[in-house]
């Protein structure tokens, strides 16, 4: 009987997605007789989008057995407690999307219903004041939640990392090679197919032929295999999202290091600031319909306060995803599978989720269509959930001060998102499916930060002693603020616990 086990997996493309795939495969498969080769073109540079992450990256490191502090030192990483949004609801206003808990349930009811009632009664407290991660971030402080006692507010903190994408790729390369990954530095120039349409082999620029049982396409927006060889359709979401371009530059970081990402809205898009130990990452994401590349360059350089450390780099994209991220014996990860602007730092998460789901559904070399279909079903929901969350930031913004923001008010909105907005508007409730990356607290943070006030709140909370609830809320805010003030500044914590 012919062996049906996969014996050779070829990852095409390095960068963050490629080495995430290689490291994950190596960790799980290194003692199972599966050969893994990563072929990387020396002609392509890492883009550097995806240096701000979500908490799932910490579980990835733990699953690989990587020491957190060693990894942070090697990648010039800093801690991230969430994202602070500036000028999104209107110019001059700011709000938080923090990691971890926001408030606690009271009398068996959702915390947000009590906050909404308090608002209607004139209580000026902001939602972030009940989020431990945001309280720490606002104070510029950090302390490991793992060192907290269960009764401490720090136990509600969650965190991710900012890191240097080039250094991450190098770190994961060393990790993968130590587990037996074969690394080939050469450009793939062609591919041949079996009669059944599966990829048979790759042809390298130096004339060599590289054959595998399964191929993982991590070639970025070029999508060399999934798009170029297998001609898999790309579903374009630019009817939902206007931004299609970005300009990026790194600058000196000689100031304090805030433990959060900044997302600052501008006339034709928005700008990120990602603080690392050795530099500050800056990028301007914009719509080419309203802004030229040279205008974007000038805007970014005008706003970057410290000296630039490299030349500006431009990046164009189409929001969307492949109709199939798994097609025949090829899986697309990273930008080869789809692209969603980095507003909520989801790029690396989608790579992690993709390789995790692949390993959960690990096939034989026949690559059953049923298995591929299930993978594609799950990942389609993941992409669409994230897409809708990003659209939310634009479609409920109060800004109308430029043609860009005016057009965002007339853009298409997916039906599922319209229903979610209507439910929140009616009674401050959030409905989410099981594959939604973002918890209800995240949706509440964006709705509330944008100034969306529900018509009413859950009437069942009327059974609670609201005067007592308000006293408790006030005490909680005061306690968290006091505890945060006594903790070390983020840079001080890094210097002591994560020296580079």
Describe the model.
It is a single chain. With 500 residues, the protein is α+β, with helices and mostly antiparallel strands. The protein has helices at 15-29, 56-64, 68-75, 111-120, 132-139, 165-178, 224-229, 293-303, 347-360, 369-395, 403-408, 415-427, 440-449, 466-485, 490-497, and strands spanning 8-12, 35-40, 78-80, 82-86, 94-98, 160-162, 182-185, 188-193, 199-204, 209-211, 214-217, 234-236, 245-251, 261-266, 269-275, 280-286, 313-316, 320-322, 326-327, 330-332, 338-339. It has a 7-stranded mixed sheet. A 6-stranded mixed sheet has the order 7-2-1-11-20-19. Strands 8-9-10 form a 3-stranded antiparallel sheet, with no helix packed on it. Strand 19 and strand 20 form a beta hairpin. The longest helix has 27 residues, at 369-395. The termini are far apart. 7-chloro-L-tryptophan binds at residue 80. L-tryptophan binds at residue 344. It holds the Pfam family Trp_halogenase.
Protein traits:
FAD/NAD(P)-binding domain, Flavin-dep_Halogenase_NPB, alpha+beta, monooxygenase activity, flavoprotein, seven-stranded mixed β-sheet, nucleotide binding, nucleotide-binding, 500 residues
CATH homologous superfamily title of the largest domain: FAD/NAD(P)-binding domain
Approximately how much beta-strand content do the residues carry? 15-25%
Mean pLDDT: 94
Helix content: 25-40%
For the terminal residues, how far apart are their CA atoms? Answer: 55 Å
Number of structural domains: 3
The main sheet comes to:
7 strands, mixed
At CATH level 2, the architecture of the largest domain is: 3-Layer(bba) Sandwich
For this entry, what is the oligomeric state of its chains? single chain
- Tally of strands: 21
State the CATH topology of the largest domain.
Answer: FAD/NAD(P)-binding domain
The number of helical elements comes to 15
């Amino acid at each position: 009987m012919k062996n049906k086990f996969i014996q050779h997996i070829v990852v095409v493309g390095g960068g963050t997605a490629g080495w995430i795939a290689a490291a994950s495969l190596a960790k799980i498969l290194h003692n199972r007789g599966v050969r893994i080769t990563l072929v990387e073109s020396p002609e392509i540079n890492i883009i550097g989008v995806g240096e701000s992450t979500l908490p799932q990256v910490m579980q990835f490191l733990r699953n690989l057995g990587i020491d957190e502090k060693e990894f942070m030192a090697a990648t010039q990483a800093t801690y991230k407690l969430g994202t602070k949004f500036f000028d999104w609801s209107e110019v001059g206003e700011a709000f938080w999307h923090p990691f971890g808990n926001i408030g606690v349930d009271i009398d068996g009811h959702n915390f947000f219903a009590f906050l909404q009632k308090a608002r209607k009664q004139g209580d000026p407290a902001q939602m972030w004041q009940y989020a431990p991660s945001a309280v720490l971030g606002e104070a510029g402080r950090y302390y490991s939640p793992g060192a907290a006692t269960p009764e401490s507010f720090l136990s509600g903190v969650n965190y991710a990392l900012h890191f240097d994408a080039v250094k991450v790729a190098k770190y994961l390369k060393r990790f993968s090679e130590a587990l037996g990954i074969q690394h080939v530095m050469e450009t793939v120039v062609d591919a041949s197919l079996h009669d059944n349409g599966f990829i048979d082999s790759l042809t390298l620029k130096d004339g060599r032929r590289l054959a595998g049982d399964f191929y993982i396409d991590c070639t970025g927006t070029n999508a060399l295999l999934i798009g170029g060889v297998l001609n898999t359709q790309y579903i374009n979401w630019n009817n939902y999202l206007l931004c299609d371009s970005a300009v990026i530059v790194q600058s000196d970081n000689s100031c304090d290091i805030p433990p959060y990402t900044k997302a600052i809205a501008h006339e034709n898009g928005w700008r990120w600031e990602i603080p690392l130990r050795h530099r500050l990452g800056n990028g301007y994401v914009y719509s080419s319909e309203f802004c030229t590349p040279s205008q974007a360059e000038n805007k970014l350089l005008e706003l970057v306060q410290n000296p630039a450390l490299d030349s500006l780099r431009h990046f164009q994209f189409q929001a969307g995803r492949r109709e199939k991220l798994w097609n025949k014996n090829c899986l697309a990860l990273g930008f080869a599978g789809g692209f969603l602007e980095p507003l909520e730092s989801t790029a690396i998460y989608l790579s992690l989720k993709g390789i995790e789901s692949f390993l959960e559904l690990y096939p034989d070399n026949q690559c059953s269509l049923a298995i591929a279909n299930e993978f594609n079903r799950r990942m389609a929901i993941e992409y669409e959930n994230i897409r809708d969350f990003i659209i939310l930031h634009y479609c409920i913004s109060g800004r109308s001060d430029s043609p860009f923001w005016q057009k965002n008010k007339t853009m298409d909105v997916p039906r599922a998102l319209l229903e979610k907005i209507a439910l929140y508007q009616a009674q401050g409730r959030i409905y989410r499916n099981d594959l939604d990356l973002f918890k209800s607290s995240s949706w509440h943070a964006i709705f509330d930060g944008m100034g969306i006030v529900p018509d009413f709140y859950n009437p069942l909370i009327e059974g609670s002693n609201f005067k007592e609830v308000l006293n408790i809320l006030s005490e909680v805010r005061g306690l968290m603020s006091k505890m945060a003030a006594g903790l070390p500044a983020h840079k001080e914590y890094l210097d002591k616990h994560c020296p580079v």
